[in-house]
Structure formats: structure tokens, C-alpha cells
Amino acid sequence: MHAQSPSTPARPLPFAPRPVPLSATLAVNEALHRKRGQGMRVLPLGFGEAGIPIHPALARELEAAAGRGAYGPVAGSAALRAAAAGYWSRRGTPTDPSSVVCGPGSKPLLFALLMALGGDVVVPAPSWVTYAAQTALVGAEPVRVATPPGEGGVPSPALLADAVVRARRRGRTVRAVVVTLPDNPTGTLAAEDTVRRLCSVARDLDLVVISDEIYRDLVHEPGRTVPSPVRFAPERAVVTTALSKSLAAGGWRLGVARLPDGPFGRALRDSVLGVASEVWSSAPAPMQHAAAYAFAEPPELVEHVDRSRRLHAAVAAAVADRFAAAGARVPRPQAAFYVYPDLGPLREALGEGHGVRTAEDLTSLLLERYGVGVLPGSSFGDPPAALRMRVAPSLLYGEDDEQRLAALASPAPAALPWIAGALDRLGEVLADLAESAAAPQPAPA
Ligand SMILES: Cc1ncc(COP(=O)(O)O)c(C=O)c1O
């Protein structure tokens, strides 16, 4: 350590750093950690992590590539880009490896895209917290457009044109619209006709369509296809995906983007690569090797994803049932590991019994009184007064890999003692909430 020289006394800086709040999903995790530290029994339903162990074959591939220390190409290795192209081609979107760009997660790729597009971005309301936050980080404005009822992840095509025309009249430059297929936070999947109409409006308005398809392989109903915008507006659709959700490798940080063919797509790719070259240089080489293996979809990984899809479907449905039993309105979860209940039907009782007026009041009550960590709908751009929240049950699958593997293998995971126990606790909390809301609380002594 250097001793401080007496001639250069410490001097406070005369400015504050730009305030950038911690992403709401990460913040709820930290709050729960504190509660657990205080000895409270907690139900961690806030963080959108897949909650499944890494498949051993994937770990073996990573280990085999640990010696790869060189940076490699900014766009990613030829092997990874070819494998990702194959992944999309098998899903009905013929893809040339030259259209694929990889990065350390799809989040940074999205950031590079928004940076390269350089304009305001239409985001669905509600939508994943990061779209609006990243739009602001690149110095642009999110234009929030409500989703059609029951179809999360896609701004209502009927409202899109009006919102964009109004923003442009204010002098704003709107360049893109983001869709999430299937959706986080609602766990639903928009209908094909809605996506087709959205693409038609995007074409009329000269918007790029960014389709975040990170949950694509986690649609609960077997055989239901995801209506990707790339089918309806290939000249302007960018698709992103990653290993984070279907293979539960979020911490590995590996994502891929598919850019459109043609002059605009190539120019966009060049700009994205420019941003990538100045921010992350290249995605980690050992991860790229493992990802090339994953995107080739060997049978053992396909089966693993299949089982995780069944686990997510079973537990999300059981959670939705608990909320419905307590009197909430709950869209049936259709994909991924999210439930998005609306406690609007209990509004009067919650207001009188607990002073709950907003989604944030409700989620603070759940956290402070019951140790239940969920996120308010307002974090996703829902109006603050709507009593909706996102519930992510995947951290209930087990405390350790042994329990998580048992959950993956079980034909009835919601009946496993540790999952059933958590579901019962959730049921009790909701019943208590509804009951004590109905009977006003005595004032604290
Ligand atoms: C809709 C959506 N897109 C992207 C991500 C993150 O992707 P990655 O881990 O590839 O950066 C998440 C994670 O929560 C998500 O919910």
C-alpha cells in the first residue's frame, strides 16, 4: 500500500455520478437476502432465474475449452455462428452464419442494438425492466404502448401507430419496437395474428422490430409455435436469444442475435460490431465453444430442455391456482416461469385493511410482513395503481442440485415436499392477506 503523501490531501469530488438504479429484479434478491439474514422464512419469487442445474454434457464442453485464452472474432467463432444459424433454420428461419453476432449475453447485444439504432424505442407495457432502462442509458426515450389483453410482450398494434405518430410530432425520432415472444413478465405468448399486424404497422412506420425470443423453447404447450416477426417482416426483424433460460446458464453470459439480410441489416450488423468491439471485444471463448454445442441441439440437451419446460409449466400452473383461489385474476401461464396475477378484485379490502393503494405498497407488504419477494407490475411499466405483480416460482425448485434434479425428473413436481411446502406457504400468505384485508388491522401498539 502507498502511504498518503501529506502534500496531496484527500479532496471530495464536486459532482455526483449519474444515478443509475440497480435493476429491480436484482434489488429484490438483495432485499430477500437481508430478510433471510434476519431469520425470516422467505419465499423467493422475485428473480427470473431458471433454477435448474447445468447439464453435465454442457459443463464438459466448457471444461474442454478452458484453455482457449485468445479473444477471437468480435462477431463470435465460425462454429458458434454456424450452430446458431442451424438453430434458427430448424425453426423455419433459414439463416446464414454471417447474419449472426454473439455477445456476453443477449442483454449487452440488445444494448449494442439500441446504441446502433440511435432513436427512441417502443416497448410493451408491461415489459421486461431492461428495455426501458437501456433505452434511457443510450440517451433515448422509451415509448410505452399497452399490450392487448391476455397477450403480453407485444405492443397493441391498434395503439402503436398513434403512439409513434404523437412522439414524432413532438420531434422525437422513433426507430424501433421491441417484442418479447414469449413474454416476461406475464408468461404469455402473443397470437400469430397480433404479431402479423404489429409487423405490418412497423413496416408502415419504418420501425425495426427487435424480437427477444429468449424464452422461445419454454412454451408450455407441446407443439405450439412461436410467431416470430422474422416471418412477417424479415427485412427489419432482429431476433435475440441466449443460453440463459432454456439451459439455465445465465451466469455463463452468452447470447446471439440474428440480423436481417440486405443493405440495412448489414449496416446494422457493422454498427453492432463496432459497439461490441469497443465494449466487450468478444464473448468468452470457452463459452462460445459450449454454446456451439448447445445450439446444435444434441438429444441429451433437447431432453433436458423438454423436462425443464414441463417443470416450469407444472409449478407456474400451481402458483397461478393459489392466486386464483385467493380471489386474484390470473392469466393462465403459457410459457417460461412467470405468473402475473392481478389483485384488483381485492382492491377495496387491501386498501381498507392495509392501506395498499399501489402495486408497490402491495409488494412491500408481502416482503415486510410475510417475507415474500415479488416484483410490482409498475417495475415493468404497468400503471402504479394497477395491483399486478410478477411472480417467478423457479427458485422454489430446490435448495440444492439434488432437489432440483429430483424436481426435473418428477412427473408431479408440485407435489414434492419442498415445492408443496412453499406452495402451501404461499396459499396461507394469500389467504391471510385476503382475510386480514377484509377485517381491518388493529393499529399497532
Ligand atoms: C426477456 C428477457 N430477455 C433477456 C434476458 C437476459 O438475457 P441474458 O442473460 O442473455 O443477458 C432476460 C433475463 O431475465 C429476459 O427476461
From TrEMBL:
- Aminotransferase class I/classII large domain span: 61-392
CDD domains, alphabetized: AAT_like (cd00609)
Q: Which InterPro entries match?
A: Aminotransferase_I/II_large, AspAT/PAT-like, PyrdxlP-dep_Trfase, PyrdxlP-dep_Trfase_major, PyrdxlP-dep_Trfase_small
Q: Which cofactor does it need?
A: pyridoxal 5'-phosphate
Annotated GO molecular function terms are:
transaminase activity
| Keyword Zinc-finger recorded | no
Q: Which UniProt keywords apply?
A: Aminotransferase, Pyridoxal phosphate, Transferase
Q: Enumerate the Pfam families for this protein.
A: Aminotran_1_2
Q: Give the family per the record.
A: Belongs to the class-I pyridoxal-phosphate-dependent aminotransferase family.
Name of this chain's protein = Pyridoxal phosphate-dependent aminotransferase
Q: Which organism is it from?
A: Actinomadura fibrosa
Q: What are the leading ranks of the lineage?
A: Bacteria, Bacillati, Actinomycetota, Actinomycetes, Streptosporangiales
